Amino acid sequence: MSGSVTLEQAARIEIRGRRLPAVLEWTWRFMRRKPLGFIGAVIIVLLALLAITAPLSAPYSPTEIHAADRLQGPSPRYLMGTDNLGRDIFSQIVWGARISMYVGFAAVLLSITAATLIGVVSGYFGGRLDATMQRLVDAVIALPGIFLILTIMAILGPGMNNVIFALAVGGAASNSRVIRSATLALKEMTYVEAARVVGSSHLRIIFVHLLPNVMPAAITLATLGLGAAILAEASLSFLGLGVPPPNPSWGSMLSGAGRRFMLQAPWMAFFPGLFLSLAVFGFNMLGDALRDLLDPRLRGFR
Amino acid sequence: MSENYWVRTFGTRLSRRRFLRMGAVGAAGAVSASLLACREQPAAQPPAEAPAGPPKRGGTFTLAMGGEPRSLDPHFDTFPFNTAITNNTNEGLLRFKPDQSAIEPELAVSMPEIVDPTTFVFRLRQGVRFHDTPEIRQDLPTLAGREMTAEDVKYSIERQSTNQPGRFQHAYFFLGKLARIDAVDRYTVRFVFNRPFAPALSYLASPWTLVIAREVVEKDGDLTKRAIGTGPFIFKSWTRNVEFVLERNPNYWQPELPYIDRLVYRVVVDPATALNMFVSRELDATGVDFTLLAEAKRLVPNATYQFGPSQFWRQFRTQPWDDQRPHLPPYNDIRVREALILAIDSKEVLDLVHSGDGILTTGPILPIYKKWALPEDPVRGPNPTRAKQLLEAAGYPNGFEEEMIFASAGLANPQLHIQIGEVLQRQLARIGVRVNLRPMELAAYYNKTYAYDYKMSHHIPLNNPDPDENLESYFGETATFYRWGNKEIWRAIRAQSEEVNEERRIELVHRASRMIVLDYPMRFMFTPNNHFFIHPWVKNWRFPVDLYDGRKWSAWIDR
Amino acid sequence: MTGYIVRRIGLAAVTVLLVLLFAFSIIRLIPGDVVQLMVAEQGYAADVEALRRQLGLADPIHVQFSRWMGNALQGDFGQSLWTKRSVVEELKRRLPISAELGAYAIIFGLAIGLPVGTLAAIRQDSWMDYLARSSAIALLSVPGFWMATLILVFPLKWFGWTPPLRYYSWTDDPWQHFTFFLLPAAILGYALAGGIMRLTRTMMLEVLRQDYIRTAWSKGLRERVVVVRHGLRNALIPVVTLLGLQFGFVISGTVITESIFNVPGVGRYFFESILNRDYPAIQGIVFFTASIVVLLNLVVDIAYAYIDPRIRYL
Question: How far apart (Å, rounded) are the C-alpha atoms in residues B152 and B181?
């Protein structure tokens, strides 16, 4: 590249004089600006790919018992070894990625949706509604976290959907607080006032003006919450309240048979632990980067 | 198949002397451990060891407890945590010998005089006194140091046999069979049964049949906080979630006993932690999960190793029923039940989940009770082919769907139970029965089992030294743990309880057991082994076969 | 200001009441009540109802609640349905232990999180920042129980070493008492460290851009003075808020760590009480834990209002 260059031209990334597609350009920028977040994103994408391609990438069914090959270490046939029932650990990891990610995503989706609803409604309408809702939210937050989760699991019984629900409830309350303060700040913005003056209905204001602007905060909370949800599911599995069979989840692999055979067959715990930690790490890194980029308001967690 | 991955991978590559030494010891341990993991039938007796020498006085004996008793009431509780305490503070008329081979007298002077098949007369020891400490003297002055008499025995047995709400879990020992107890005089007790009752002596020797102090019941209303009796140890303190401390009773009626000064039980909830504490000598004896066996042997090579089959075993159950609760299809068809039982391969479950570390069972009574257990398994299984044929004949050529419940959360190793469910699921799938596993939290599970509201489950019952306990409480007329409405079986079980001659009784027990097994209510699967380590300074004591019996009077410490 | 305080206290009281209402009603929804458990494996059908009456569980729920509230206001939280010991007595023993564990955990978290966060802030976007941040997050990504198991299992295997696993009271042996908490506190703390690090970093970044920091720089003060004295102090306020919320967690949410390390704290007691359906115990624990959380938040709110007058009108 030679000659004078406009600001615009300099801002674009050029290789051999041709512009890169916008997506790649954006990715490159993201990597330069937030390398850690980029690493997190890469990890997540890889794990997601693993999860999505489970039927293809898993050499065996995760519940298939090969009794003769039990407790074997990693080998060409069983990439990550087998567990004490003779099931392929790699296949369990791959299918477990589905479960762990699904449970995490579903719990967080539920949680953020509820939090956004509560936070926006409470913050926007204010007044008595706000005061009442905030008392309830405070009450839920003050309830010991494990209490909520255990109680819900005890009432509903084991089951993947129940785990998702239990994990969502606690997060919903504390996340709603953050959304609410974001809403409060947004409420004062001139364009919202303008919309009110013009006579837009409440619904319109909420959906058109508030929600989209609360989205960044919500997305950040969601990403950070994913890491917490995956860890929480592992703890639930330890207590015996996690995702029930036949679904293998990283948490149940790690806290159950993996832990028991820790000395005899360390690969049973090592791989689920590794993947679990990687996933949580990735989500946290990505979430941090998103927060830095998207919403400076979130810094002061009040 | 060496179990020790670390030895294989790192044992020879690391240069540090320590690791090499570790490797050698580890390899030896791995070899012996893998021998164990093979399908060897372990002996119930520990290997021979150096003679113990003369008893030494003094010292503290520390063990771990995996949980805590709900109360200190031996009449109301079913967990071994209770008897760990009460078998040392209280005593019974009779007790089992430390190796469980026979019954011997404890508070009675000798075995009873059998006046006729329904009447037993016991003579009590004289000069046996209840515990006497400043606290007891202050709180219960009439109790401290007073002599135990026939009235106390009568009171205790009657209390145990009372059917009070949710409290007296062992009433079934004597309720409905004992006509009356007479305190003939201060030191003589007469039991009169309303029919010949063969298990009578076993029930009297049971760890749960203990003489308690009426004054405590009268003052406290129950026995949840205090354990006062005539035993070799005095209850000193219970710091919840931490430990129990018992101290030597200086006025024990056997003046040279007990040898040790203090008995401490530490509450250790996590089984892996117990090994750590044993190695660091915080515990004098502990149980160890078989997955840690090689490590334990390597880390404490001079500890005594004891193993044997547990009395907590595994059953696969089909729907309970009786006159009030009808037997529903398809379970009311014996062909279906037989098919289910034939599909189950107990050995495979044992091999996969427990690495083969255990023994298979032959019927409702465990082989560890050699006298009473069936010598062979009447079920000719596993036989999936025949099972499929039976299902077809019964009208289920494509099998059927069912839900299997079991307890997991709230138990020590939740994943273990889930894995057992998964293997059973696979085995039943082979004959076309598609099982949905439903692990439940302990309380919710009891909810269902207590209401007999399930079609399939797998369960851990326990076995007791007397066959009557195992037969009657599951399959008999007054059964509560499970219900099986087959009246012929009821009669067979009752018949064995009335047969006092042991040889004939064995025949009747076998007969009842066979009837039960071949009616296919359950698959009696296996019992895993218990592995125990005891430091060499603990003498003259081993973990009892009946893990309930907590008596430690025979032990001494010799460091 | 007083008006604000009074309002806040009032609101806090309402919150606590709501918490109790929640706790009281929810646990009675759980199937498998305490009576079933008590007669488990050996019940006689008729007994269940009688036992339920005896334990006071047969009355309608609002009667039970008012009876409980009435007693609670006099400081009587009832007896554990299982052990027949007073709930207050049980909590009196365990709350201090959990509080101590929680305090050490928070200290650990702060000891790691504050310096790492500050470092990451002042060397923003340098390799030190990246290293610090990724290490902190990597730590909190590992599940606590796995870390705990690794610490128990492998040092034992390799070196024959085991951490202290027995609780000694403060009066029995102060050194053993202290060292007993170190490892479980570290495991709880490193998870907190990640969050603290994050918050410290973002707050420091914001604070360091402020004018008064620039003034401090131009005065020629050393970096350490600027950062610590002027920057950190102001950045700490939200961190303190965060800690307030975390404290509730470390008191009652630590059942796994407590089980593994034999800590006789509230977390385990709570878990066992839920499993045993020990209603009075559960209610007592929820009451105390929630009160502590609400109280801490109250104190923080008031402190905030004191520092920043704008907040008083929220």
Answer: 11
Contact C93 B240 (CB under 8 A): yes
* Domain co-membership, C199 together with C242: yes
Query: How many angstroms separate the CA of residue C254 from the nearest CA in chain B?
Result: 14
Predicted complex ipTM? 0.80
Residue B43 binned pLDDT confidence (cut-offs 50, 70, 90):
very low
B151 min Cα distance to partner chain A (Å): 47
- What's the pTM value of the predicted model, to 2 decimals? 0.83
Identify the domain containing residue C57 by its residue range: 2-72
CB neighbour burial string for B337-353, b if at least 16 within 10 angstroms, e if fewer = bbbbbbbbbbebbbbbb
Same domain, C154 and C61: no
Residue type, C262: N
Tell me the Ramachandran region of residue A167: left when phi exceeds 0, alpha when psi lies from -120 to 50, beta otherwise.
alpha
Interchain CB distance below 8 Å, B163 and C47: yes
Strands (E), B354-416: 358-360, 401-407
pLDDT higher for B446 or A113? A113
Q: Are B311 and B546 in contact (CB under 8 A)?
A: yes
Using a CB–CB cutoff of 8 Å, tell me whether A46 touches chain B.
no
Q: Which chains touch B (3 or more CB pairs under 8 A)?
A: A, C
Minimal Cα distance from A258: which residue of C? C146
Do C10 and C152 fall within a single domain? no
Of C146, C199, C255, the CB nearest to A301: C199
For B65-80, the DSSP string reads ESS--S-S-TTS--SH
Tell me how close the Cα of C31 comes to any Cα of chain B, in angstroms.
Answer: 6
Inter-chain touch B5–A265, beta carbons under 8 Å: yes
Integer Cα distance of C42 and C20 in angstroms: 34
The answer to whether the beta carbons of residues A234 and C140 sit under 8 Å apart is no
pLDDT at B32 over 70: no
The count of domains in chain C is: 2
- The residue of chain B nearest to residue C156, with distances taken between CA atoms, is B276
Boundary-marking domain end, from C42, C72, C102: C72
Residue C228 maps to a domain = yes
Burial B440-473 (b: 16+ CB within 10 A, else e): bbbbbbbbbbbebebbbbbbbbbbbbbbbbbbbb
Same domain for C37 and C7: yes
pLDDT for B27 beyond 70 = no
Of A142, A273, A281, the CB nearest to C146: A273
Instruction: Kindly give the residue spans of alpha helices, DSSP state H, lying in B200-357.
Output: 200-204, 214-220, 271-279, 293-299, 334-343, 346-354
Question: Using the beta-carbon criterion (under 8 Å), do A254 and C143 form an inter-chain contact?
Answer: yes
CA closest to A62 among chain B residues: B422
Set of chain C residues whose Cβ sits within 8 Å of the Cβ of B410: 275
